């Protein structure tokens, strides 16, 4: 079943407006608060049907979807539609962060990012060849993880003092034990097959104060996909993500020691809760010298990640410039101390 | 604007340094109080010392003394303090050789620029080269050799490795490489989450800890001697730091 939001006033298509956070009709300006929409589509379980073809409620045209598509726009009439089967039952997202950056702001943010590129070619920095800009809700799993850490090892404290003609170094050895409880909340892991994990990791952090209970109208006018991996499959990745956090926390608990060598470390990570969340991402396809470059932008904060083209001339320029200035400073210091300038 | 400010600061620094670094030359370089040299030899050495000294903006002093009541190093320091006060200078670049005929000892010292180019080990090296001539009584030859050896070192690089060209070049290239590498590495966006991003500080804490003292190990090393009488540099009574090398001949 296809959900399509038609304006009760004028009959035009409604879509989510990032500025007001409401379902908006662009023709007559009607705005509906999304919090009040019913959950009927999410709570009802649809019968498993094999239909892979969906028709636009508005014009009847066949919607171009693949097996992961949750929301899309009709390629004929442009109406934003949501496929109800794919947001209900086990596929129902529990939370969503709506877009706070609209298309115009996304272009501006991308241009600004390009302009700040230190090692990208000049003609790339103008950012005037955006080929495609797609607002997309990407499926993530967020985990509340409880970690119990028991670590023991040996620590040293070093004291140095002078007495007579000798310098004494006093090294005290301690047996150190720490039992730590750590809770990491809502650690996000990308659940889409199509998205590169490293790229998605760099898009963090999101501001969680804007996490909303999922409602289908948030998706109106954007693309959305369903998860390819369930929360069980991605739990190991969530655990590896917090591994370095845990280690640095352990380190902070033994900061009174000059050295600490852990000898026994037991880390037990348990999942307390997991949430299926849709996060807003702008995908930017940029055409530069016959090649397409893909960038991703955090649809909430505007942070851009991706691999831009690198200008060798600029890299050489920076390298030469920094080395030359450093050398000049060294020479000036030498000169100041009484040495020759050249 | 920022660039202009930087250039201005650089210019200011440079002019300050050029002004502050200049040290006036003293007219007499050879003080042959022990009477080891003939008048002709003194004139010849004066000319040479003046020539070389002007080239490097560093006075080359040669002092001979025959007095049973002096220590050669102390004498060198006092001599420097006295002469710098006479000229009313804060800073005076000097490479100095003192010969104590009574104890048959020699002391070489470098002050300021002299110290920069002639550290203890370089002065040791010079002393070893001129000692045979001193032992043989060829004082003029030894003093002339001293002036030329000072000239050699002053023509090269400062003694400190951090002030030498090639070393600075390597460091500059490494710094340039690291910073540029970071630019390239971060061009695609950086990870900006840290261990506090997802941490629930209300429930995360240490449940139990134990710090059991086991033992203490004490090691001792001899303090590096700073003012050993066997040689090396020091600080004069007037507060001027210098390098030095002391030996018998």
CATH topology of the domain at 22-161 and 236-248 in chain B: Diaminopimelate Epimerase, Chain A, domain 1
How large, in whole angstroms, is the Cα Rg of chain B? 27 Å
What is the radius of gyration of chain A? 27 Å
Helix and strand composition category of chain A: alpha+beta
The largest pleated sheet of chain A is described as:
11 strands, mixed
What is the count of DSSP helices of chain B, taking H or I runs of 4+ residues?
A: 7
The percentage of residues in β strands of chain B lies in 15-25%
What is the helical fraction of chain B, as a range of percent? 40-55%
Signal peptide (chain B): 1-23
Region (Disordered) (chain B): 220-249
Transmembrane segments (chain B): 165-186
Domain TPM (chain B): 30-147
Overview of the structural elements:
The complex is a heterodimer of chains A (342) and B (249). With 342 residues, chain A is α+β, with helices and mostly antiparallel strands. Chain A has two domains: 1-143 and 186-230 and 274-307, no CATH class; 311-342. Chain A is built from six helices and 16 strands. In chain A, strands 1, 7, 8, 9, 10, 11, 12, 13, 14, 15 and 16 form an eleven-stranded mixed beta sheet that branches. A three-stranded antiparallel beta sheet of chain A has the order 2-3-4, with no helix packed on it. In chain A, strand 2 (14-17) and strand 3 form a beta hairpin. The mean pLDDT of chain A is 89. A six-stranded mixed beta sheet of chain B has the order 1-2-3-4-7-6, with helices on both faces. In chain B, strand 1, helix 2 and strand 2 (59-65) form a beta-alpha-beta unit. Chain B is elongated and about 90 Å long. The chains are: A alpha+beta (342), B alpha/beta (249). At the A-B interface, strand 10, strand 11, helix 4, helix 5 and strand 16 of A face helix 1, helix 4, helix 7 and strand 5 of B. Chain B: The chain crosses the membrane at residues 165-186. Chain B: InterPro entries: TPM_dom. Chain B: Residues 30-147 form the TPM domain.
């Amino acid at each position: 079943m296809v959900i399509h939001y038609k304006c009760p006033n004028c009959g035009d298509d409604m879509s989510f407006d990032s500025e007001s956070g409401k379902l908006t009709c662009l023709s007559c300006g009607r705005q509906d608060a999304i919090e009040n929409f019913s959950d009927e589509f999410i709570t009802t379980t649809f019968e498993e049907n094999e239909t892979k073809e969906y028709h636009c409620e508005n014009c009847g045209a066949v919607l171009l979807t693949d097996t992961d598509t949750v929301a899309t726009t009709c390629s004929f009439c442009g109406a934003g539609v949501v496929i109800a089967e794919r947001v209900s039952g086990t596929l129902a997202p529990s939370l969503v962060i709506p877009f706070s950056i609209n298309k115009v702001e996304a272009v501006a943010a991308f241009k600004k990012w390009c302009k700040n590129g230190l090692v990208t070619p000049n003609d790339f920095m103008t950012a005037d060849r955006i080929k495609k800009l797609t607002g997309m809700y990407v499926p993530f799993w967020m985990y509340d993880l409880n970690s119990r850490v028991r670590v023991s090892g040996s620590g040293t404290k070093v004291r140095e003092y002078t007495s007579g003609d000798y310098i004494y170094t006093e090294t005290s050895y301690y047996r150190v034990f720490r039992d730590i409880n750590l809770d990491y909340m809502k650690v996000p892991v990308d659940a889409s097959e199509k998205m590169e994990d490293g790229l998605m990791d760099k898009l963090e952090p999101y501001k969680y104060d804007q996490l909303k209970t999922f409602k289908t109208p948030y998706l109106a006018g954007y693309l959305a996909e369903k998860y390819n991996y369930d929360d069980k499959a991605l739990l190991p990745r969530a655990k590896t993500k917090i591994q370095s956090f845990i280690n640095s926390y352990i380190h902070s608990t033994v900061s009174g020691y000059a050295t600490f060598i852990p000898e026994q470390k037991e880390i037990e990570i348990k999942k307390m809760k997991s949430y299926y969340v849709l996060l807003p991402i702008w995908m930017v396809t940029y055409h530069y010298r016959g090649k397409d470059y893909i960038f991703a932008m955090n649809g909430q904060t505007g942070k851009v990640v991706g691999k831009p083209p690198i200008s060798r001339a600029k890299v050489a320029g920076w390298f030469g410039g920094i080395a030359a200035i450093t050398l000049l400073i060294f020479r000036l210091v030498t000169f100041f101390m009484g040495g020759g300038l050249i | 604007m920022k660039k202009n400010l930087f250039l201005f600061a650089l210019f200011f620094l440079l002019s300050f340094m050029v002004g502050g670094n200049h040290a006036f030359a003293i007219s007499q370089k050879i003080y042959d109080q022990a009477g080891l040299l003939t008048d002709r030899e003194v004139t010849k050495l004066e000319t040479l010392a003046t020539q070389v000294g002007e080239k490097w903006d560093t006075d080359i002093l040669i002092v001979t003394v025959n007095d049973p009541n002096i220590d050669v190093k102390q004498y060198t320091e006092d001599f420097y303090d006295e002469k710098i006060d006479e000229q009313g200078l804060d800073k005076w670049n000097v490479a100095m050789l003192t010969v104590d005929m009574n104890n048959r000892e020699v002391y070489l010292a470098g002050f300021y620029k002299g110290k920069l180019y002639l550290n203890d080990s370089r002065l040791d090296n010079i002393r070893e080269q001129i000692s045979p001539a001193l032992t043989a009584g060829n004082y003029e030859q030894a003093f002339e050799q001293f002036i030329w050896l000072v000239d050699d070192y002053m023509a090269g690089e400062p003694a400190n490795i951090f002030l030498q060209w090639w070393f600075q070049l390597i460091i500059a290239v490494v710094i340039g490489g690291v910073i540029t590498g970071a630019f390239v590495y971060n061009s695609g966006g950086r990870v900006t989450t840290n261990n506090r991003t997802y941490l629930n500080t209300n429930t995360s804490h240490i449940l139990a800890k134990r710090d059991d003292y086991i033992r203490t190990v004490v090691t001792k090393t001899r303090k590096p001697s700073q003012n050993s009488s066997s040689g090396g540099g020091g600080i004069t009574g007037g507060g001027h730091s210098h390098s030095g090398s002391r030996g018998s001949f």
